[in-house]
Specification:
By secondary structure, this protein is α/β, with parallel strands linked by helices. The chain contains 6 helices and 5 strands. The chain binds D-ribose (RB5).
């Protein structure tokens, strides 16, 4: 599996920890920045982190900010992206099964590193359910 990851300044430290965790599980990670925790704007890094998802270079994208909310709002503006802000494993499972999310956004400030690891494991392990969800996801994409 290959994933992209990006953050803003608030998510930088969590991003670095999650990169180490994922690489330790032999998941290939494309780090789309930033390279430091200098103040920056999350929409810029939402775009950088989503680009490899849109191009097909990676299977999934991960975006980290203080809450995960700003990253999700920004990412969902990008053609081809279905981003879900997940603060627990249930949401991580459902956004894959029902919504075929291809980007997950995480909170660095309100969710622990261990919880974010579990959330990512669930997200990667859950397949899209298809069936009745397929037409709904197609309608989402038609809105873009
Ligand atoms: C930065 O202070 C914060 O607003 C940002 O990381 C994110 O939580 C926005 O949704």
């Amino acid at each position: 599996m290959k994933v992209s990851i990006a953050s803003d300044h608030a998510g930088f430290e969590m991003k670095q920890k999650l990169i180490a965790y994922l690489e330790g599980k032999s998941i290939e990670v494309v780090d789309c920045g930033p390279d430091s925790d200098d103040r920056c704007d999350y929409p810029d890094y939402a775009a950088k982190g989503c680009a490899p998802v849109v191009s097909g270079e990676v299977d999934y994208g991960i975006l980290v900010c203080g809450t995960g909310i700003g990253m999700a709002i920004a990412a969902c503006k990008i053609d081809g992206i279905r981003a879900a802000n997940c603060n627990n494993t249930t949401w991580a499972s459902l956004c894959r099964e029902h919504n075929n999310a291809n980007v997950i956004t995480l909170s660095a400030r309100y969710v622990t590193e261990e919880e974010n690891q579990a959330i990512l494991n669930t997200f990667f392990a859950t397949e899209f359910g298809g069936g009745r969800h397929t037409g709904r996801v197609e309608k989402i994409m038609a809105l873009q």
